[in-house]
Amino acid sequence: MENCTIYVPKLITKKENFAPGHRACIGCGEALAVRLAFKAIGQNVIVVNATGCVEIFTSQMPYTSWRVPWIHTLFENTAAVASGIESARKAMVRKGIIEDKNTKIVAIGGDGATIDIGLQALSGAMERGHDFLYICFDNEAYMNTGIQRSSATPFGASTTTSPAGKESIGQFAWKKDMPGIAVAHNIPYVATANPSYPFDLMEKVKKGLEAKGPAYIQILSACPTGWGCAGELSVKIGRLAAKTGVFPLYEVENGKYRITVDFPKLLPITDYTGLQKRFRHLSPEMLEQIQQKVTEKYEEIKEKAEMSGRCGQTGTEE
Amino acid sequence: MSKRVGIEVSIALADVVGMANTDVVAAYPITPQTHIVEHLAELVADGELDAEYIPVESEHSAMSACMGSAAAGARTFTATAGQGLELMHECLYVASAMRLPIVMAVANRALSAPISVWGDHSDVMACRDTGWIQIFTENGQEVVDIALCAFRIAEDNNVLLPTMVHLDGFHLSHVIEPIMMPEQSQVDAFLPPNKYPFFLDPARPQAMGDFAPPAIYTETKWAQEVNLQKSKETILKAWKEFAEIFGREYKPVESYRCDDAKILLLTMGSYSETAMTAIDAMREKAECENVGLLRLRLWRPFPTDELRKAIENADVLIILDRALSFGSAGGPVGMEIKSALYDVSKKPKIVNFVGGLGGRDITVGNFEELIKKGIDIAENGSENEFEIYGVRE
Predict the structure, then answer these.
(1) Across the interface, do B193 and A46 touch by the CB < 8 Å criterion?
(2) Which residues in chain A come in under a pLDDT of 50?
(3) Alpha-carbon gap, residue B140 to B337, rounded angstroms
(4) Are B94 and A73 in contact (CB under 8 A)?
(5) What is the ipTM of this complex?
(6) Which of A70, A80, A91 faces B23 most closely, judged by CB atoms?
(7) Which pairs with CB-CB distance under 8 Å and at least 24 residues apart come from A268-271?
(8) Of the candidates B115, B46, B52, the residue with the CA atom closest to the CA atom of residue B81
(9) How many Cβ atoms are within 10 Å of B113's Cβ, its own excluded?
(10) Which is nearest to A170 in space by CA: A317, A283, A25?
């Protein structure tokens, strides 16, 4: 019951720090996730945005969708830019140049910017212990450039650079375990989230923001354009990602795992894959292989949570 | 009063960055820049400089962290060399286009392959179009003075451009020289606190780094070009005020024994002092009494007017480049100067050499030979657009 307040939608601010009128695709899970995250973050923040979908659909000279200070420089350097801002403010507060207002630094990027090209900069910033929150909006491919595979693309998904074909099953590697990589940096807070579970998402963003030191949250963001599904299905698909165990919702606080939205029995992955064109070519055998891996991975996280003694309540949030 | 001390140039440079009360240093080690950033880390560790030192994991992140720091309004410094500058390359364009006043020392180094830690200007020349203000130095005193001026120039609200201070790797970075170190009171009188007008602040939300569609991109680039060209006014003003406080004067194009000179050698960086000795020797030996030296101090913005004035009376201009521009019609400096003089009606014959690559020494004797060879080519012509001095073909 400790988190009961977050289950009251009325308590959530009506203030939008992420303004409407941006140019995301219809049904964009990422736009929804950004909106929810920035409800939780509030206004006392400086946002550092990597090149990618969000950066493009929220900015075009001379317009912006951001009602908070926002900076974009390049694709792979977002965590490094954030570390520069954090250090600058630390020095300037200490030297009395600016007032200490506990301003938060939030870096955001897609899966390509975070897990592929920006991994080194992110690893460096996490290792150095800068006080910032990094949110990866994971839509599982390079959507902005036209649905090319990244290391976050799930096994078997057909993308424009891992197309399914006579000699190809689509994406040939398993999704890189970025939350695991973040945990290995011994940072105070790591979590996964999904805008189909908005209260869970906002609670985690708040926790990540309050953590002293680096925090990493990976938010699965359904992409109707890239995943090949109807725009109105993105929330449903997000729910199914959790209910099938394809994208488990958990957090790791100071090394202790907790599954935040758990299900007594996982649904078969085909409930999830069946709604998306990117998996349509997969044979029953391939799907079975994916099912086994998903179950195995889910059990692994569950085991870690049990070992941490912090297995969460059964998820009922809808 | 400031006093003269015997000190390694890198250490003196770090000391003056400390005296500038720098807020953030983000740096990654690379030979021959290491002594600069090591000493800065020491100053911070010993509490002599109140700054955040970010030991980043790459030069790309060094420049990225500097961009964040400068955008947050902090006085920001980094240093690099050779491959490090190349790894920063894409960031350099962003730092200048976003008007972020970062000061960077570059201990000029040759580029791989083959790997060479020694000095030349290949790294600079690959970054000449990045929109930074770029200033060359010839000796330790100039490194200290120009570094101090760099903060003043970069942070001036009429400029707001990142600025590179070039010092030749090893030939300058690692030598011990007698240097007049400034007094803190002089530094404070010359260098006002950094007042970056666009600093990121939740009290005043703004977006920095929006994308630009074709309808506006050209105008942003035009504004950047105008801004860099105009920065020369502020550079000249800063150097004038520097001279008033410190008694040492700097110019975009420096001349040595040029009053009666008909034959001019043009160099950049630390080789200039060797060239001066060669010119003294040639004049003394009466081998060539009308030879003088031009040193290009300001590389960007390019001092076209000053250069045109400096060559007014010359018959021959011998240009020594310390980098190749592969497959082109000359060294980068040679080509740029030829282009700057194309429209001048009375211009000298231009002879272009490339030399001193990968730290190869050019001695006083070599310079004498190079000048004589240049005069010969000016008189008799050559099959080549340029020559690589001293190469064993």
Answers:
(1) no
(2) 1, 316, 318
(3) 27
(4) yes
(5) 0.97
(6) A91
(7) A268/A244, A269/A244, A269/A245, A269/A294, A271/A240, A271/A243, A271/A244
(8) B115
(9) 5
(10) A283
| Residue of A71, A91, A121 lying closest to B208 (CB–CB) | A71
Q: What is the dihedral of CA B380, B384, B386, B387, to 10 degrees?
A: -90
Are domains B3-246 and B254-388 of this chain identical in fold?
Answer: yes
A124: nearest Cα among B262, B64, B145, B286: B64
First to last CA, chain B: 54
CATH 3.30.572.10 fits B254-388, yes or no: no
In this structure, which topology does domain A4-307 adopt according to CATH?
Answer: Rossmann fold (3.40.50)
Give the pLDDT confidence score for residue A1 in this predicted structure.
Answer: 42
- Tally A–B CB contacts below 8 A: 169
**Among residues of chain B, what percentage have pLDDT more than 90?**
98
Q: Which CATH superfamily is domain B3-246 in?
A: Thiamin diphosphate (ThDP)-binding fold, Pyr/PP domains (3.40.50.970)
pLDDT beyond 80 at B249: yes
The nearest alpha carbon in chain B to A59 belongs to B210
State yes or no: pLDDT of B37 exceeds 70. yes
**In chain B, where the domains are located:** 3-246, 254-388
Q: Is B52 on the interface with A (CB under 8 A)?
A: yes
On average, the pLDDT of chain B sits at 97
Q: What is the pTM of this model?
A: 0.96
CB distance from A129 to chain B under 8 Å?
A: no
Domain boundaries, chain A: 4-307
To the nearest whole percent, how much of chain B has pLDDT over 70? 100
- Token pair 């179950």 is found at A295
